[in-house]
Amino acid sequence: MNFLTKELLYQKSSQELTSYLYEAAITQLKDAIQLMERKQFLEANKRLQKVNDIMRRLGAGLNYDSGIIADQLDAVYNYIAQKTIEANIKKDAQGAKDLLAILEELSAAWTEILKTKPAAAKPAGKIGTSQYEKHIMVQERNLNPMEAGK
């Protein structure tokens, strides 16, 4: 994934952001697998923690009004998060590879959906915000506690 500035991120649709999160999770998981195979467990741990963070963010962005697919994705994200923790504790590169296959399949399906159904344009001056955007805004506000008094 190319480096994205905050301005570019705000111009992306929630569907495009989901695609970037899948890519980031895949990259982190691939790195973690290589690190585990080289017995560099501290660095692998950091990568696996990032995968869990991404799974949490993906789950926070689900729109449960869209139907059963949101419930199913939530279950998959929770499964990946739990198995990532297990792979981390057991230092199980094969278990991480199994999760990588799931993430790659999800990402490929998501990319295919984006190709066939373009994201709805964001209206200018949008009043409401999605759950995903609310979560990102809260996360961003909490990033630098030193600026809280400004």
Descriptive notes:
It is built from six helices and no strands. Helices cover 72% and strands 0% of the residues. Residues 121-150 have low confidence and may be disordered. It has helices spanning 6-11, 14-37, 41-60, 68-90, 93-116, 131-141. It has 150 residues and is mostly helical. The two termini are 33 Å apart. It is globular and about 40 Å long.
Low-confidence stretches: 121-150
The span between the termini is 33 Å
What amount of the residues lies in strands?
Answer: under 5%
C-alpha Rg, in Å?
A: 17 Å
How many distinct beta strands? Answer: 0
> Judging from the principal axes of the Cα atoms, what is the shape?
globular
Mean pLDDT: 81
> Major sheet: size, sense and barrel closure?
none
Percent of residues in helices comes to over 70%
What's the quick description here?
With 150 residues, the chain is an all-alpha fold.
Question: Which keywords apply here?
Answer:
150 residues; mainly alpha; 6 helices; disordered C terminus
Give the topology, please.
Layout: H1 6-11, H2 14-37, H3 41-60, H4 68-90, H5 93-116, H6 131-141
Helix pairs in contact: 2-3, 2-5, 3-4, 4-5
